[in-house]
Design goal:
heterodimer; A: mainly alpha; MetI-like fold; 12 helices; 66% helix; B: alpha/beta; Rossmann fold; 10 helices; 13 strands; 29% helix; globular; Oligopep_ABC_C (chain B); ATP hydrolysis activity (chain B); Dipeptide ABC transporter ATP-binding protein (chain B)
């Protein structure tokens, strides 16, 4: 340190946003093509969910009988693509209750995203708490927590979710709770592993040597450094949660009719797959796109955060 | 084991007595304790105010464990550490937190010892935040003051650890230790991860700080040249025990323990033509899981006799130089 650079005023010590780690990480994420594609699709879906009432031409639960001259399960009719002008326009057709499928798919975005974020949010919250306590405290507490997690993991997750819904009673709320519960162990494990590796680092010992309480060390030093793998796992987990929720709804255990939920839409019209394929095709496609978006984003994030690929 | 006598003129700051640290080894289905790693086995020494005690030994001999145990970063198995008359190892909670202000540590790995998510100004300020010292402005002043002490400028405070070199990070670690105005600092191999050119710089900073702030150091290292440069006294550890301890010049001019002699002969001398006697040890350091009976050094010792394999030598002062203590059966006229 022989070169002296002109000093900045003291107050610059409080402003360190210019080159934050967040920005560096964002730059790395932007370099991942799959993260960009997934993120773009996700952004689109979020916008659709927010502006659903403006995008959808009809109320999703509005039964058109008596309002329009139209049959049940009518085929898609798009005027621009040559559908006769005298026929009412339903770009994805109508379902068995003569409701506009397009509106229902659009409104379904809201529910699916809500399911994804709430269940994973719940699971991450509980999982982080359990995993970090286990990893940080160790000993019999760790053993107890992780063995319970092992038991939960031993069940196929959907089967366990079905069992939980069966006990709690069916309905969207209980389905959310069930999916949240079955996804806890994954996050608990990820956080625990991460905490175990971070807590051995010297800056954690340094914090203890400076007099930091165990809570200070855990929440200020260890957890912030243990979070990145969780973000990846959470993004991928949202895809699974949406899929599980759709499956529960398909089985009639999740969202109940007439709620415009993709899984429910599939379930109620599954017998018409040959006579009116558009009724199962579009909700299915919507599920696929959403899950794909989260998976792409999650994979991209993982690659961006992976230390082996730094710079 | 006899205790280290301290020169009466100087005031003793910290005294370590019969410190023992065993790590349990668990195994089997029920994770029962099946063995113990004897990392530190009955180590005693004391350090006077303003003094630097160098603690040397090869990797795995327990020297880092000694430093961490003194600071209660690791629980000791037994023994005592007295700091200004207070038994450190029995402190808990608020008392321990208070004691932490007086005793600090600088770590070996400058890349792992700073939180990568904190700008270094925040890292340095962590201690004074934990101890709720001063208001926000005073904290900034204190951080800047300590950064200047180690040769950093205040604009560095906004930067993240990854933007610094190893030497700079080590100085950041020193600044962090200084913010609490400690009296005693454990320097846990502070320069072993640095380039030689940077080592001298960091050592000089440490020396100047010691003068300026009247600090007391326990300097843990495996590099004898570095230890010779900075220490007042040197203790040589082998397999969890102190083999020899003496004032620096005495130890380097008159090493008594065969292990110390071997270490000394391994110091490179920058005179390629000069011939000298090399003591080359055979074999590896035995496992601390199952240390040899008797003198722990006997399987590798060039002068070992029968007695060494069954009788453990006590650490004794030399007749000629009472401050020079050796744990060997064959030292010149060793006395109690």
């Amino acid at each position: 340190m022989t070169t002296k650079i002109e000093l900045l005023p003291n107050d610059s010590a409080t402003d360190y946003r210019t080159n934050s780690l967040f920005r560096l990480t964002m730059r790395r994420i932007v370099r991942q093509r799959s993260a960009i594609i997934g993120g773009t699709i996700l952004l689109f879906l979020v916008l659709v969910a927010i502006f659903a009432p403006a995008i959808a031409p009809f109320d999703p639960n509005f039964v058109l009988i008596g309002h329009e001259d139209i049959k049940r399960r009518s085929d898609p009719c798009i005027h621009l693509l040559g559908c006769p002008e005298d026929q009412p326009q339903h770009i994805l057709g109508t379902d068995g209750n003569v409701r506009d499928v397009f509106s229902r798919v659009v409104f379904g975005t809201r529910i699916s995203l809500m399911i994804g974020f709430t269940t994973v949010g719940f699971a991450i919250l509980v999982g982080t708490l359990l995993g970090s306590l286990g990893g940080f405290l160790g000993g019999w507490i760790d053993n107890l927590i992780m063995r319970i997690m092992d038991v939960l993991l031993a069940f196929p997750s959907l089967l366990l979710a079905i069992a939980i819904v069966a006990v709690l009673g069916h309905g969207l709320q209980n389905a959310l709770l069930a999916i949240g519960i079955v996804s806890i162990p994954v996050y608990a494990r990820v956080v625990r592993a991460s905490v175990l590796s971070v807590k051995e680092q010297e800056f954690v010992s340094a914090s203890r040597a400076l007099g930091g309480s165990p809570m200070h060390v855990l929440f200020r030093r260890i957890l912030p450094n243990a979070i990145p793998p969780l973000i990846v796992q959470g993004t991928l987990g949202i895809a699974t949660a949406i899929l599980d929720a759709a499956a529960l709804s398909f089985l009639g255990l999740g969202a109940q009719p007439p709620t415009a939920e993709w899984g429910t839409m599939l379930g109620t019209e599954r017998n018409q797959v040959f006579t009116a394929p558009h009724l199962v095709f579009y909700p299915g496609l919507a599920i696929m796109i959403t899950v794909l978006a989260f998976n792409l984003l999650g994979d991209g994030l993982r690659d961006a955060i992976d230390p082996r690929l730094k710079n | 084991m006899s205790e280290t006598s301290i020169d009466n003129k100087t005031e003793e700051l910290i005294r370590v007595q019969n410190l023992v640290k065993y790590y349990p080894v668990t195994g089997g289905v029920f994770r029962r304790e099946i063995a113990q790693v004897k990392a530190v086995d009955d180590v005693s020494f004391s350090i006077a105010k303003g003094e630097t005690l160098g603690l040397v030994g090869e990797s795995g001999c327990g020297k880092t464990t000694v430093g961490h145990t003194i600071l209660q970063l690791l629980p000791a198995t037994s023994g005592s550490v007295t700091f200004e008359g207070t038994d450190v190892l029995s402190l808990k909670g608020a008392e321990l937190k208070e004691m932490r202000r007086k005793m600090q540590i600088v770590f070996q790995d400058p890349y792992a010892s700073l939180d990568p998510r904190l700008p270094i100004g925040e890292s340095i300020a962590e201690g004074i935040k934990i101890h709720k010292m001063g208001n926000a402005d005073e904290r900034v002043d204190r951080v800047i003051e300590n950064m200047r002490r180690v040769g950093l400028e205040n604009y560095h405070a906004n930067r993240y650890p990854h933007e610094f070199s190893g030497g700079q990070r080590q100085r950041i670690g020193i600044a962090r230790a200084l913010t609490l105005q400690p009296k005693f600092i454990v320097l846990d191999e502070p320069v072993s991860a640095l380039d030689v050119s940077i080592q001298a710089q960091v050592l000089n900073i440490l020396r100047n700080l010691q003068k300026e702030l009247e600090l007391t150091y326990l300097f843990v290292a495996h590099n004898l040249a570095v230890v010779e440069h900075i220490s007042d006294r040197v203790a040589v550890m082998y397999l969890g025990k102190i083999a020899e301890m003496a004032p620096r010049d005495e130890l380097f001019s008159n090493p008594q323990h065969p292990y110390t002699q071997a270490l000394m002969s391994a110091i490179p001398i920058p005179k390629p033509n000069r011939k000298r006697e090399r003591v080359i040890l055979s074999g590896d350091v035995p496992s601390p899981l199952n240390p040899p009976n008797g003198c722990r050094f006997h399987p590798r010792c060039p002068i070992a006799k029968d007695i060494c394999s069954h009788e453990e030598p006590e650490i004794k002062s030399l007749v000629s130089e009472p401050k020079h203590k050796v744990a060997c059966h064959f030292t010149e006229a060793a006395t109690q």
